[in-house]
Design brief:
Length: 212
């Protein structure tokens, strides 16, 4: 997992960085740990931005010092991540989370586990409206109780998003129609960082019929 580590104060994320690296996370930063927080990587080289470059971070971990009650200048990247829809996990053992409502508070929880949970939750928030749209279409077409037989998944690769939809073998709606509706729904509901992907492919396939 590619993880952006942000520290409210230099050194606040040292322990988190070690634990993430040990869990085989690729830890990146908005600026080198021993350099000023301004300018960030995006200002010196847009392609080097860990949030919007060719390989954006999957999750952001914010390690906060208990002495920092309000957001610090070093945490400017949190706003960027929130706008792009990238999940943010705040490690604040003393409960100092000024990003409440926009980020997940993990307290002193094991950072890699907190990241997994945040990514899974963000994934579900993205696919839920797409799945609901497919179910609506199938039920409108005469297929009753379609909710339990529809799966939707997506994967991001740089500026490309691949959406995979599986519907029942007796789906009354053409795959091309489903793909069009899912793509439109994705553009309307997905976080900005995903909705503005250069290419959004939607693949629709049917599940095998039940064995006789």
């Amino acid at each position: 997992m590619r993880t952006l580590l942000i520290e409210s104060t230099p050194g606040a994320g040292a322990a988190a960085s070690a634990m993430l690296a040990a869990a085989e996370h690729s830890v990146v930063r908005c600026h080198e740990a021993d350099t000023p927080s301004f300018p960030c990587a995006a200002l010196t080289d847009p392609l080097a931005c860990p949030l919007a470059g060719p390989t954006p971070a999957d999750v952001v971990v914010v390690a906060r010092a208990h002495t920092d009650a309000a957001p610090t200048a070093a945490e400017a990247g949190v706003s960027c991540a929130i706008k792009l829809g990238i999940p943010v996990v705040v490690l604040a053992p003393m409960g100092a989370n000024p990003f409440e409502g926009f980020a997940t508070s993990a307290g002193s929880e094991y950072p890699p586990e907190a990241c997994e949970q945040a990514v899974d939750a963000a994934h579900e928030r993205t696919v839920a409206p797409l799945r609901a749209e497919v179910v609506r279409m199938l039920e409108a077409g005469g297929l009753a109780d379609a909710a339990g037989s529809v799966t939707v998944d997506f994967e991001r690769d740089g500026t490309r998003v691949q959406i995979d939809v599986e519907v029942p073998h007796d789906s009354p709606v053409e795959p091309e129609t489903i793909a069009t509706h899912v793509r439109d729904r994705f553009r309307a509901t997905a976080p900005a960082g995903l909705a503005t992907a250069t290419v959004t492919d939607v693949s629709v396939h049917t599940s095998p019929p039940p064995e006789a």
